[in-house]
Amino acid sequence: MTAALLCFLLAGPVLLVAAGPARDSNNGTVPLVLWHGMGDSCCNPLSMGSIKKMIEEDISGIYVLSLMIGKNVIQDTENGFFMDVNEQVSMVCSQLAQDPKLKGGYNAMGFSQGGQFLRAVAQRCPSPPMKTLISIGGQHQGVYGLPRCPGESSHICDMIRKALNSGAYTDLVQKHLVQAQYWHDPLNDDLYKKHSLFLADINQERTVNETYKKNLQLLEKFVMVKFLQDTVVDPVDTEWFGFLKTGQAKETETLQESVLYKEDRLGLAAMEKAGKLTFLSTPGDHLQFTREWFNENLLPYLR
Hints:
35% of the residues lie in helices and 12% in strands.
């Protein structure tokens, strides 16, 4: 059971990209905090390490913090699979609050699961203030599918989904398997709402936490990037905060069609009305984009 779930959503490190400037009153730039995706680490020289280095070379004086969850790169990678997400978020909140270079505020960029984890930071820990959140392939309504699965009608897909779901909401798996904490089963909505330790909480599924709602609306911009040929995240609509309609596993709904938006349980409707939400898309598979696309589409949000 656990082994099968571990294979779920496993993707390679993000492709190499570059970043650009944002301004503050100290050295001319707003600090940038990065949170990597599953199977990656803060300092992988082929992914996050290279991104951090290029940003620092591109923007004179910028402070870039690539989050390490643990004491070393090995722990950081392992914790992306096994450490309670709530504990990870708490650890990051503490780290950010104690960093004097971030006291004036920072921008944040999360890759894959790092996107929704940074959103949890914005909702739970408003100090220091997060200014702009860029979620690159983040699964904001969770996932209910398998990487490179051959279609929604496949009996194999359905069989594996049932196997995953039979253990995804047990206390043991929820506590110790990261991906189970954002497994969202539309066929068992009550089970999901009751036992999801992380996603159901930050998405206001059980009750409306007014503090979460208020804090998220403090963002100046919330940018969500969807990969149009994504074979890893299912459904891909989750990268724009959409998801499968409750009670079935074929039809999806957009964020704007959801109860979350219509009741504005998280403040996203108000944010869109205020021009704070941006929905971007790019051709390609999960976390695969060109440097040119990044520079043209994401750099403006860091200036």
